[in-house]
Amino acid sequence: MDLTLLIWYFFSYSILGYVVEVLYCSIGQRTFVNRGFLHGPYLPIYGFGALFILFVFTRITTHPIMLFFIAIIGTSILEYATGCIAEKLFSIRLWDYSSYPFNIKGRVCLLNSTLFGLLSLMVAYGIHPYLVEVIEAIDPGVLEHGAMVIMLLFSIDTTSSVFRMSAFQKQLSEFREKRNEIENRIKILHDFKENKMLEGLRVKLDTELDELRLRLSISAKRIFNAFPSLTSGNEEKRLLLETLRRTIREHTLHKKIHGSKRRSKKRDD
Question: Is 172 exposed, middle or buried (0-12, 13-18, 19+ CB in 10 A)?
Fold first, then answer.
């Protein structure tokens, strides 16, 4: 198959996968959920998965049941491998299916694998024939230049997203060090409860710790939105991520209450 067409198929299914993920998650949570590791509205794992399905489909076009089971196995391997790579690179689990039945180390589960199998059938027998018509109707020169733009776009976005996640990792480490330092100071000050000046310093340190936690949680909000089950195998980091997630919920609730009071006051005025 022509490389230019492969790039366009990859790009198209990456966008389609993003739309499916966003709809699936947003309907379940009743709010818009922006999914994905990258900045743009596409999920490369769906693009790679679709290319795998198309490669298999061209060889077994008349065996949908066989395609279904091969799709389940292939996409599960892809998802499992992607999860392993992310954990190795960032020491963080971008998703966790541990609470789902029939899961393998929380990286894949039977429910999602079955859904991927069904999506694969939709792609092979329903969506792809129409997509081929649309893409092949585009001028070859436009397709070729567009493919180069797509590759450049993905390269820049991937690099930027890796740096963003690395920066988040650095922020987590710096926060843990600063938190431990502040907590040690507070622990020492607890031995001097009778001194009002020291009590004020304790309050100041507590406030500084809360501000640090809030700043980190705000910068992490996009990552948490994209990966609601984000966690870590490291117990200390896992607890810190849970604390940040709770801080984000409390901050969001506070903003809603404050906004509601402000609108109510304007109506009264």
Answer: buried
